[in-house]
Amino acid sequence: MTASLIQLVASIIFAIAILHTFSVKFFKKLAHKYPRHENIFHMLGEVEVVFGFWAIILITIFLLISGKAETVNYLNNQSYIEPLFVFVIMIIAASKPILDFSLTCVRQISKLLPINKSLSLFFVTMTFVPLLGSFITEPAAMTLAALILKEHFYSKDISSKFKYAIIGTLFVNVSIGGAMTPFAAPPILMVAAKWNWDLAFMLTNFGWRTAAAVLTNSLILTFIFRKELISLKDSIFNEDSVPTLVLVVHFILLLGVIIFNHDLIIFLGIFIIFLGVANSYNQFQNKLIIKESFLVSLFLAGLVILGGLQKWWLQPFLTSLSPNQIYYAATALTAITDNAALTYLGSLVDGLSNEFKYALAAGAISGGGLTVIANAPNPAGYSILSKNFENNVVSPLYLFLAALAPTVVAIIFYKLI
Q: Residue 157: helix, strand or coil by DSSP?
């Protein structure tokens, strides 16, 4: 497939944006070195800003090359439902009633394990919450897990090595944890309807593999860092009760957003109702994470704009591979592009075998924890947890290395067993 000038430009900018995500520490250092321009360098040092910033650059060049009509037409033909859905679901899932109830569930389950309290709380958080993502969606699960981990583990005196191990495993577990149903994991959601993957199919082909991989990753991580976990002081839990009616209303609104996740007008309408409820019962709310959710939404919207012009090289590459090759290629490619984009491009090709379809989707979710851009919920976890790392930055290299072992576990269950 021959690329147009704007497609070539978009691919170059896309590559620069990926390099930028690996260079955020450099911009943080520039902010300290040049205090006069501190704010702009701090902004460029935020991973969540990267793709939004380079999308603006692309749009500007697009206008100069192709003119207003073609630029606006391209932008209008892209779907921004996923960025807006993640914005809404993050805020609602992180509301105090939902978060407190989820933490209570995690605590009650952890009490059933006859082991140290910190060990059991950590293990259940890393296992139960990502698997819960198959029902409440991955962005919601990522938000809940990251907030629990931040409050009860990252806020403690744990080693940097443990911090990276947690976030690497969390990203992988959430990426695969939503694959038990056809509506929760973005790369599965993109193809489920066209490929007729219903709940029975997902449970049969992905369900047990997903549960086993998440459980194995959590067990290994908990065992390796058991001494650090045991040494932590017991967490002090907030026992403030939220009225049942308020909790039920929040869950109804959360469920409504999940059910209508493809219907922009409806889930935005539900979100407006949520804001009204949150304001009316603000005594039962913490500060809503609007800034963090906006930055994540900006990141994903930028990825949509830049990714929409990568089809010229990505789709021919995918279709040139065998089912066995496509699994490993999808796992690797996910590290440099959103895994939902991979499966979407694959879904545009007719006549794919069932084996190829499975390999593409399984590879996409297997590699979803390797980088921040690999899976749509990752920026949400990054936004919440990055402030607990040195210079408020998660090293892309260390994240990649931390996610490698959990990714290998996913490969074992999805491909080799």
A: coil
3-class DSSP assignment, residue 132: helix
Contact 313, 1 (CB under 8 A): yes
Q: Tokens in use for 93?
A: 């899932």
User: How many CB atoms within 10 Å of residue 98?
Assistant: 21
Q: Tokens at residue 393, please?
A: 């930055």
* CB hemisphere CA count around 251 (13 angstroms): 14
What tokens does 180 get? 């038990």
Decide if 282 contacts 58 (C-beta within 8 A).
no
Q: Where are the domains of the chain?
A: 81-416
Cα separation of 206 and 417, whole Å? Answer: 12
Q: Could you tell me if 378 and 178 are in contact, meaning their C-beta atoms sit under 8 angstroms apart?
A: no
* Tokens matching residue 348: 């545009």
- Convert the pLDDT of each residue in 222-239 to its tens digit: 999 999 999 987 655 555
Residue position matching structure tokens 């807006």: 84
E strand map for 242-314: none
Identify the burial level of 30 via C-beta atoms within 10 angstroms of its C-beta, where 0-12 means exposed, 13-18 middle and 19 or more buried. Answer: middle
d(CA 289, CA 267): 18
If the chain, 417 residues long, is cut into consecutive pieces of 10 residues, what is the mean pLDDT of each piece?
87 90 83 85 84 94 95 93 88 89 88 90 95 89 93 92 97 96 85 87 95 97 95 66 90 92 93 96 89 85 87 83 92 86 77 91 95 90 92 90 97 93
Nearest to 145 by CA among 108, 163, 171: 171
Tally of CA atoms within 13 A in the half-sphere of 281 that contains its CB: 17
Angle (CA) 325-327-331 rounded to 5° is: 120
190 token code pair: 């993109």
The residue written with tokens 């029975």 in the block is: 200
Among the listed residues 79, 134, 22, 125, the one whose alpha carbon sits nearest the alpha carbon of residue 341: 79
Task: Report the sign of the C-alpha dihedral through residues 49, 53, 54, 56, in that order.
Answer: positive
